[in-house]
């Protein structure tokens, strides 16, 4: 049965402390929802050849940066005011780390939008869009589920996301090989195919950041840092 420890937080004598922690979690999830949608919209702009939408996505990146600063400030104030310990301190520290990952997801979405704008002006690349759509669906699902695991403090689901990261790496490598082969056979479209390759790279990085968030969820729930550890060891931390 998945470990859902939502009642680990929010049981303090101080109702204001409960409210502060709830606000931090809610604002983090709001930022997560924004960067998830940014990524989806950027891929849609690429595939649809919609330069206007791509430009709008790049402009919205400023909101992501603002939310990152506000969340960092809120977390810092909470530490200074409440001096949290044990599980509460893990929550605040994890949020600070995960906010950085979300901001970087926003940066990757901005990069995709940049290439979407380029290809909208130059014309579609002849290959790569099927692979972009496939990997995009995979990594945005990972991101969504990592945010859900955070919301429900579900370390079992977080472990599943960590396992998915290897599959994304394999899909990225296969897609890259396909595009390289195509460019070797027909050099006329190298520039546009390279733009698609950079988009694939950006999506692979989104998957990495989703995995980082999942690792921090395990840290919050289990109290163990599973970064840079084999999956087998992370599985032992989470348990059955």
Biggest sheet layout: none
Oligomer: single chain
Number of strands: 0
H/E series: HHHHHHH
CATH superfamily: Phosphate transport system protein phou homolog 2, domain 2
SS-derived structural category: mainly alpha
Unreliable runs, pLDDT <50, ≥5 residues? Answer: none
CATH class label: Mainly Alpha
CATH topology-level fold name: Methane Monooxygenase Hydroxylase, Chain G, domain 1
Q: What is the first-to-last residue Cα distance? A: 8 Å
Estimate the global geometry from the Cα principal axes. Answer: flat
Number of helices: 7
Computed CA radius of gyration, to the nearest angstrom: 19 Å
The averaged pLDDT comes out at 91
Total count of domains = 1
Strand residue percentage: under 5%
Helix content percent band: over 70%
By CATH, the architecture is named Up-down Bundle
Family: Belongs to the PhoU family.
Subcellular location: Cytoplasm
Keywords: Cytoplasm, Phosphate transport, Transport
InterPro entries: PhoU, PhoU-like_sf, PhoU_dom
């Amino acid at each position: 049965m998945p470990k859902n420890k939502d009642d680990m937080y929010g049981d303090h004598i101080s109702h204001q402390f409960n409210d502060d922690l709830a606000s931090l979690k809610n604002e983090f999830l709001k930022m997560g929802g924004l960067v998830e949608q940014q990524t989806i919209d950027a891929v849609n702009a690429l595939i649809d050849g919609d330069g206007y939408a791509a430009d709008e996505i790049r402009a919205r990146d400023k909101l992501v940066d603002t939310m990152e600063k506000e969340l960092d400030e809120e977390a810092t104030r909470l530490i200074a005011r409440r001096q949290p310990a044990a599980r509460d301190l893990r929550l605040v520290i994890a949020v600070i780390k995960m906010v950085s990952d979300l901001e970087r997801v926003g940066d990757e979405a901005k990069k995709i939008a940049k290439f979407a704008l380029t290809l909208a002006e130059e014309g579609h690349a002849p290959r790569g869009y099927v692979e972009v759509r496939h990997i995009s669906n995979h990594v945005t699902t990972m991101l969504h589920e990592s945010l859900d695991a955070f919301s429900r403090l579900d370390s079992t689901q977080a472990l599943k996301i960590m396992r998915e990261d290897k599959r994304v790496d394999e899909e990225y490598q296969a897609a890259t090989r396909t595009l390289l082969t195509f460019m070797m056979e027909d050099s006329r479209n190298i520039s546009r195919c390279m733009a698609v390759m950079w988009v694939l790279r950006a999506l692979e990085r989104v998957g990495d950041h989703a995995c980082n968030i999942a690792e921090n969820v395990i840290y919050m729930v289990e109290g163990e840092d599973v970064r840079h550890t084999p999956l087998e060891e992370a599985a032992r931390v989470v348990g059955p």
